Amino acid sequence: MTSACTFVIVGQLDHPIYEADLTGPKEQQAQYLHQFVLHASLDAIDDIMWSTKECHLKTTDRFNNLLVTAYVTPGNSARFLLLHDGRNDENIKSFFTEVYELYLKIMLNPFHGPASKIMNKEFDKKVRTYARKILGL
Amino acid sequence: MHARMQGLSIQPQHQGGNVSQTTFNPKKRCADVCMELLLLESVHLYKNRGAPAASAALEAIGMRVGKQLAERYTKDRPRLGETLEVIKFLCKDFWLLVFKKQVDNLRTNHKGVYVLTDNNFRWLSRSPPISSAGGDPSQEEALREVALQHLHLPCGILRGAMIQLGVPCTVEADHKLSPPACAFTIRLS
């Protein structure tokens, strides 16, 4: 059973610095839809972000049967967005925590600019491994 | 330089998963004096390259380092909300981790200007104190100039940290106080 799942990291200037389609190969139409929904959910996340002190924001937005869950870094510098169909909520928290560690390591790299995209293959590999292990994809 | 600064400011991490560990486990540390020498030498280097570039270059280095330090030090802490919380984080946690003590005095005019005063700024601890009573005024000026050059880097670090935490600002150092006391003025933009 295919489950739709896309993961995006959004930087401070509201631009995606990392995108990963965590399910198998999909048709183009769905990918565009995912990107669009995630972009649209940034407004909702902005609202919720400033009304709570939590890092883990629960489901922030929904579109048809797709849910967007978000996580904000403690310094308010990046947001992690996960588009999914609402099946494994518990594991999403641990997934975000693991990816936060990876993100920190990338940020501490002196050669990585503040707004540059994350092109690191190791990072990509590890994110997909965590997705497989924790989210069961 | 970035790696060294970060390496010195963090406590040594537990090296788990290392199978062949003997009972003597030397944690990786770096002597504080290396940091002080590095700072002195960096100011010296940029001064020799040409005075106009020195302050800009040091501030740019500081900004980079400040951003990454801010990212790192907010890791397991609760989220920072408004500007005042960011300033408090800067004065307490950040200052403690980078300069090994907290800020001694924080003043604000509630219109976006904050003055952080540190009576014993760690990076100026080797500067000679400038006595305000008597003494040669031109010599005092020269000493103050030297102290100011050493403050470009910390200003950059503070500015980088504030920007990374979402508060655009400019930071100036006040060299009117006698070293090792030092005041930083943060102006929100």
TrEMBL record, chain A:
Q: Which GO terms describe its cellular component?
A: cytoplasm
Q: Fetch the InterPro entries from UniProt.
A: Longin-like_dom_sf, Sedlin
A Pfam entry, by short name: Sedlin_N
One BP annotation, GO: endoplasmic reticulum to Golgi vesicle-mediated transport
Name of this protein: Trafficking protein particle complex subunit
Recorded source organism is Chlamydomonas eustigma
Highest classification ranks of the organism = Eukaryota, Viridiplantae, Chlorophyta, core chlorophytes, Chlorophyceae
Automatic annotation (TrEMBL), chain B:
- Any one GO CC term of the record: cis-Golgi network
In terms of InterPro entries, this protein maps to: NO_sig/Golgi_transp_ligand-bd, TRAPP_component, TRAPPC6/Trs33
* An annotated GO BP: endoplasmic reticulum to Golgi vesicle-mediated transport
Region of interest (Disordered), residue spans: 1-22
List, as start-end ranges, the regions of compositional bias called Polar residues.
8-22
Which Gene3D superfamilies does the protein's record reference? Trafficking protein particle complex subunit 3
- TM annotation in the entry: none
Cross-referenced Pfam families, in alphabetical order? TRAPP
Q: Which family does it belong to?
A: Belongs to the TRAPP small subunits family. BET3 subfamily.
The record, for PANTHER family, names: GEO08327P1 (PTHR12817:SF0), TRAFFICKING PROTEIN PARTICLE COMPLEX SUBUNIT 6B (PTHR12817)
Q: What is this protein called?
A: Trafficking protein particle complex subunit
The species this protein belongs to is Chlamydomonas eustigma
Q: What is the lineage of its organism?
A: Eukaryota, Viridiplantae, Chlorophyta, core chlorophytes, Chlorophyceae
